[in-house]
Specification:
Helices cover 65% and strands 0% of the residues. It is mainly α. It has one domain.
């Protein structure tokens, strides 16, 4: 599941193909020198916002068990499930 709009994804794929074709014409030694000088790309995400909510103790207990079985923090599992549900609703609403 990509969060990028389709037109941007297509443009990035085309740009990647153009770069691949350009690099294929270069000598391997030159490519290695350029890669050694290159800086790593870091994608910045907006900071997450803390949220407070009241949950039934039984539900919280089950959530923690499931998260422990999956090997992730229960707050991360809550975030994943919430995101999935939002995506389902968004698709269902035709947005």
């Amino acid at each position: 599941m990509s969060k990028l709009p389709e037109n941007i994804r297509k443009r990035l794929k085309a740009e990647a193909r153009a770069w691949d074709a350009s690099i294929a014409k270069e000598k391997p030694e030159k490519v290695m020198k350029l890669l050694d000088k290159a800086e790593a790309f870091v994608a910045r995400r907006p900071a997450r916002q803390p949220v407070s909510l009241r949950i039934d103790p039984f539900d919280l207990s089950m959530l923690k068990r499931i998260a422990r079985r999956k090997g992730i923090p229960f707050t991360q599992l809550m975030s994943i499930w919430l995101h999935e549900k939002i995506q389902e609703e968004k698709v269902g609403a035709g947005s």
